[in-house]
Design brief:
Layout (H helix, E strand, L loop, with lengths): L2 H8 L1 H7 L3 H4 L7 H13 L4 H12 L8 H16 L15 E6 L6 H14 L4 E6 L4 H14 L3 E2 L7 H15 L3 E6 L7 H17 L6 E7 L5 H13 L3 E5 L9 H9 L3 E5 L7 E3 L2 H9 L4
Parallel strand pairs: 1-4, 1-5, 2-3, 2-4, 5-6, 6-7
Antiparallel strand pairs: 7-8
Length: 304
């Protein structure tokens, strides 16, 4: 099964929810206020958020229809969703110099953060970049072991310490080792955290200070990994981490099996942060560049 098939499969329930009223709607001669309200409610129920849903409703209201059918309406939905997503669909670029380009990866526990780091490392290695992984999540021994297993799997060295060790020290050593060995990218895992974990937020600030002393431009990217299955809670995470950690871009995981992937649209509309990639499976190749058109058509229930 291709990644696009998995993406569409993950959006099956979302597309069905969006289209719950389409059959009845398309029997009407015109899109009256009540019909437009039904469309907006279906979009909100699909986690697209009130701002994006209202914007799409207003855009549809301006259209003129000679004949309205379900596929035509789905096509219009896809076009309007793509307009929201296209500006934030930006590839992750390795631009930092002197090397390494430092990517700090953050997120709540259970978001798929450590696995995403490994997939990102594999993705960059496929582009012929040298990659070093740093096990900065010293809060959980399992996270260190997990990253080391993934490092062996993708052929990337991992610098790690002991459980409970100084995460900033690991990051410091990672930059030194990457510089000495000529690696292009250092990807740093961090402890899963939320705003109620003050000591972990302080640790993140310390990591940033250490990186800044080594290279004023580091970290070059601060990527927040979001679990699509959390729905509207993902927006709260973006807000917290954006303000406290200086998030520069997003990666959305678990889009192959969720009815709540519409949260991508809500995040794009509300925050405008770059969305670099999406996770559509458990395999090492299942992190894909964010494709606004493919996602928009999947949400609307249209084939690619």
């Amino acid at each position: 099964m291709s990644w696009l098939d998995r993406l569409r499969g993950g959006f099956t329930k979302t597309a069905a929810k969006v289209g719950e009223n389409l059959t009845a709607i398309t029997k009407q001669a015109a899109l009256d206020t009540s019909t437009l309200d039904d469309i907006e409610e279906a979009l909100i129920a699909s986690d697209l958020g009130p701002e994006a849903s209202h914007r799409i409703r207003e855009a549809i209201a301006t259209r003129r229809f000679e004949q309205l059918d379900e596929r035509g309406l789905r096509t219009i939905l896809a076009e309007e969703i793509e307009k929201i997503l296209a500006p934030v669909a930006k590839p992750l670029e390795v631009w930092g110099f002197p090397r390494p380009h430092v990517v700090l990866v953050i997120g709540a526990n259970g978001s798929g953060k450590t696995t995403t780091i490994a997939k990102l490392g594999h993705w960059l290695k496929e582009q012929d970049y040298g990659v070093l992984l740093a096990a900065g999540d010293t809060f959980r021994a399992a996270a260190i072991e997990q990253l080391q297993i993934w490092g062996d799997r993708i052929g990337a060295p991992v610098i790690a310490g002991k459980e409970g060790g100084d995460a900033a020290g690991i990051v410091f050593d990672g930059v030194r080792q990457a510089t000495a060995s000529g690696e292009d990218v250092l990807i740093v895992d961090t402890a899963g955290r939320l705003q109620n974990k003050a000591h972990l937020m302080d640790e993140l600030s310390k990591i940033r200070r250490v990186l800044g002393r080594l290279n004023p431009e580091a970290p070059h990217d601060v990527l927040l990994v979001l679990d699509a299955t959390t729905g509207q809670n993902a927006l709260a995470q973006v807000e917290v981490f954006r303000d406290s950690a200086g998030v520069t871009g997003l990666i959305m995981t678990k889009l192959d099996g969720t009815a709540r992937g519409g949260i991508l649209v809500a995040a794009a509309e509300k925050f405008g942060l770059p969305i670099h990639a999406i996770g559509v499976g458990e395999g090492v190749d299942d992190l894909r560049p964010f494709d606004a058109r493919a996602v928009a058509r999947a949400i609307a229930g249209l084939p690619e």
